[in-house]
Amino acid sequence: MELETLIRAAQEQELPELVLKNGRIVNVFTGEILQGDVAITAGMIVGVGEDYHGRKEIDLENRYVAPGFINSHVHVESSMVTPEVYSMEELRQGTTTIITDPHEIANVGGEAALKDILRAAEASPVNYYVMLPSCVPATPFEHTGAELSAEKLLPFRDEPLVPGLGEMMNTVGVLGLDASVMEKLRGFYDRIIDGHAPMLSGKSLQAYICGGIDTDHESISYEEAVEKLRCGLHVLVREGSASRNLTAIIKGVVKNKIDTSRMAFCTDDKHLADIRKKGSIRHAVKKAITLGLPPVRAIQMATINAAMIYGLQHIGAVACRYRADLVILDDLDAVTIHEVYKDGVPVSSIRQPERIQYNEALLHTVNPAPLPADAFVIPEKESYSVIGIVREQIITEHLHMTHQEVMDGLKNGTVRKIAVIERHHAAGFHACAYAANYGLHHGAVATTVAHDSHNIIVIGDNDADMFKAVEELKAIQGGYTIIADGKVVGSLPLQLGGLMSLLSADAFIPQLDDIIQKAYDAGVDPDIDPFITLSFTALPVIPHLRITDCGLFDADTFRFIP
Q1: What is the CA radius of gyration of the chain?
Q2: Helices in 375-485 by DSSP H: which ranges?
Q3: How crowded is residue 486: how many other Cβ atoms within 10 Å of its Cβ?
Q4: What is the 3-state secondary structure (H, E, C) of 285-330?
Q5: Higher-confidence position of 542 and 399
Q6: Residue 517 in 3-state DSSP?
Q7: Which end of the chain is more exposed for a tag (fewer CB within 10 A), N or C?
């Protein structure tokens, strides 16, 4: 853009291209709401104040003007659609900037997948920033489709859409000074490094931060969040499909009058259907306001705070020299959207970009070895470690149950078998254990979305349906499936890496809603997400008990349970 053009338009020596008149402007710098106009040229704001005139003028009729929202930490793959489709859904809900960590698809496709995502980011209608995945794989305790060392990551370091290093999930590696982890931290020490520190506290937390960590999005309570704030971390308050931590944290913030300038909102993992129904960051802002957070402070968390945390220039405010990314609101408290502008263009007139040409190998990623007949047989013992699923959270409980309690649970539906099968290289690794509190009357539920290595994960009450579920996922090359009595109750193909659909949002969302409802009809606990909750039982960096393709894993001690 030509600076001369902006300067002349700011002085009205040349009329600005667009003036939004008679708005109530949310000033995120001072916390005020000011009456005035917003003048825009070349996608940038060139003036905010009274009595601006432009080549085109739109009367806002006293509506509120807020900056476009920022999703400060999101895995787009968890929406289960491609970045092109996802970006448009976010835009319609007022999110004009996303900060993504593509470690899901990187775990499947490595550097080639990362290159595809950067190409998609360049073509995206939103400001699409990519944090380089720090933990591919998340731990050495599972098998994945690829590995990204510091040597492989550093060539991407200076890409224009890369702010820094994605969430460092290997806390044990940081605290234990693992050489490969240290190499990554040193390589990005002068850039933003996202953290991942669930329940880390005291000296361990502070040692982790000394490694160069800047943010954390894993707090599930106010007490955990405020300790991290006191230690200097930026706290990203998460409200996703499975992990809903906003209420607990914001209630504490309001009650204790805590400064929110180092806090922002994120979704982490959220289904596309949930975004369409409620929004992503818009939903977080609205929920925070209902909990007593003043509206302007909630909007600051959703905009300028996130921009400052990630060092994003000219984003996150309604002010001159900022991008004209705006959300026009009919009602501030209800966060009712009237229109969204991206670079001064109404989103209602922006067409979804064409899908980029993804690497062909990403369409053929489900390749499990043939399973032995006893793959789901669990040896009889006096007692068992059982994965206890927790409602509305991705942490699990480490339950200790006797043989009789497990047998009773299998009969009454509170206990089910759960298994993970390596699916990338036909390596033949698989493990089976017990899980409690998932629900499911009969049959099997399975998916290739199994954080973060994305092997096949299946849960069920009988071995035959579990075998059938694995076969179905191979046949459709990834996705979701529900099996009962040897028949497919429903399947949702996710062909791209076994993680993302190639459908449009309008075609995909009804299919997603349908299979989720079928899972609930089959008895899955209505207070959990049937597939996202299941997918996280395979993530060995979240407390307390997990399962990988190598076995049952104690995430607190970082050891397998025999």
Answers
A1: 24
A2: 403-412, 463-476
A3: 11
A4: HHHHHHCCCCHHHHHHHHCHHHHHHCCCCCCCCCCCCCECCEEEEE
A5: 399
A6: helix
A7: C
Checking phi first, is residue 512 left (phi over 0); if not, alpha (psi -120 to 50) or beta? alpha
Alpha-carbon gap, residue 432 to 42, rounded angstroms? 58
DSSP state of 553: E
Tokens matching residue 369: 């070895």
Averaged pLDDT, 418-430: 97
Distance between CA atoms of residues 139 and 124, nearest Å = 31
- The pLDDT, as a whole number, for residue 139 is 83
Q: What are phi and psi of 505, to 5 degrees?
A: -60, -45
Token digits of residue 206? 């502070």
562 pLDDT tier (thresholds 50, 70, 90): confident
Given a cut of 90, is residue 455 above it in pLDDT? yes
pLDDT at 1: 60
Closest CA to 2 of 46, 39, 37, 38: 46
Checking if the pLDDT of 271 tops 90, the result is no
Cβ proximity of 59 and 24 under 8 Å: no
Model pTM? 0.92
